[in-house]
Specification:
The longest helix has 38 residues, at 77-114. The strands form two sheets. The protein has a five-stranded antiparallel sheet. Helix 5 runs antiparallel to helix 6 (118-149). It is 57% helix and 15% strand. Among the domains are: 2-114, no CATH class; 250-334, Alpha-Beta Plaits (2-Layer Sandwich). The protein has twelve helices and eight strands. The chain has helices spanning 2-35, 41-45, 49-64, 71-75, 77-114, 118-149, 152-163, 165-175, 177-192, 233-237, 264-277, 309-330, and strands at 200-203, 206-213, 217-222, 227-231, 241-242, 250-258, 281-293, 298-306. It is elongated. The chain has 367 residues and is an alpha+beta fold.
């Protein structure tokens, strides 16, 4: 009977205690979240339940597993102890990352609730994202090192490795030169406010929005939902366009090549009607002007404004589509066309203009 009850007690008690403690902490966090809706920290901390349960169970089991009535457990005590230590270290690192993420996200949410400057919000969001990646990397490295130190053989190896750490560091630095440059470029982007998540950029002729920023690479989401992954060092060494820098408001233009007979005042009135009906127009400015002319057409420029790059695109395509449709329906003669008719000769009396000053008719080349 004892061989059945003792294993159930040794394993079951840690499970029950871990579940009860986890349930109690979760209940307190739920109540705190219900009372303080303005503070999202308590709700975010509830995501830490799983690693917390694993930490509690591993810690309790490491203190009680030796009570199991099995000779095999006693014979392999070191292996069981090391396995539980590895689980405890890994779960503790997981818990630390979850708690750090909850604290950082809560701080950002509280800041975003009172901040109305979208550019500053994108900058803080980029910094928060990179900070969390750094914290995760540091905790992961420390946890991996702690796990390796639980192996007795690696402790002896570590002593000899420290003696040659300087030489290894130099070799690693040379081998990972590009990686280190990207790493430092990531810090420069994060805290230099060069580019932020949500910024509209043009890189290598591609228009898109910054979708993800890490310590080594950056992802641009193009207008057709493609993802362009680029090293962050590109943005510190190559020129690129950032349409969100210095404010998100933009001015856009739409050019039309029309016949010289096109009714410019009526087109201007139609443009006013279109922009006032367009929800993407921010109401700042609009205009229409003839900017150039050729022997067959004239160039008409429509100017519109919007609050950001996405809206300016919507306004431009709306103006282009509706103006062309309106011209085709109401003023088809205004659209450019190729003249294939015969040339109209000048009046017969105009040959007088070709007389020379002395009254003689110029030679025609026939002798």
């Amino acid at each position: 009977m004892e061989t059945v009850l003792r294993p159930l007690t040794v394993i079951g008690v840690p499970v029950v205690i871990a579940l009860l403690v986890g349930w109690g902490i979760d209940s307190l966090l739920r109540r705190a979240d219900a009372r303080h809706k303005e503070t999202p920290l308590w709700g975010l901390l509830r995501r830490c339940r799983t690693p917390l349960l694993i930490v509690l169970f591993a810690a309790l089991l490491s203190a009680s597993y030796r009570l199991l009535p099995y000779d095999r457990v006693r014979a392999h005590d070191a292996a069981f102890s090391q396995a539980l230590a590895l689980v405890l270290i890994g779960a503790s690192a997981w818990l630390i990352v979850r708690v750090s993420a909850a604290a950082v996200e809560a701080s950002y949410a509280k800041y975003a609730a009172v901040q109305r400057d979208t550019a500053r919000l994108r900058r803080v969001r980029t910094q928060v994202t990179l900070i969390m990646r750094i914290v995760t990397a540091v905790v992961g490295v420390i946890a991996a090192a702690a796990m390796l130190l639980t192996f007795p053989d690696l402790r002896a190896v570590g002593t000899s490795m420290l003696a040659s750490a300087g030489l290894i560091g130099i070799v690693a630095g040379i081998a990972a030169q590009s990686t280190l440059s990207n790493l430092f470029a990531g810090f420069q982007i994060a805290f230099g406010d060069m580019v932020r998540i949500g910024d509209t950029v043009v890189v290598n002729g591609e228009w898109g929005v910054i979708d993800e920023v890490t310590l080594t690479f950056l992802t641009v989401r193009t207008w057709d939902e493609r993802r362009i992954t680029m090293p962050v060092s590109y943005f510190t060494s190559q020129p690129f366009e950032n349409w969100s820098r210095g404010g998100s408001q933009m001015t856009g233009t739409v050019f039309f090549h029309l016949d010289h007979r096109a009714p410019v005042p009526e087109i201007r009135e139609k443009l006013r009607e279109i922009v006032h009906d367009c929800s993407a127009w921010d109401g700042r400015d609009w205009g229409l002007a003839v900017t150039d002319t050729t022997p067959t057409t004239m160039e008409v420029r429509a100017l519109v404004t919007a609050k950001d790059a996405n809206d300016i695109w919507s306004v431009r395509v709306t103006v282009r589509e509706q103006i062309l449709r309106w011209l085709a329906e109401q003023h088809p003669y205004a659209l450019p066309r190729i003249n294939t008719g015969s040339a109209v000769p000048p009046p017969r009396g105009d040959h007088v203009n070709s007389l020379l000053k002395d009254g003689r008719v110029p030679r025609t080349g026939r002798g």
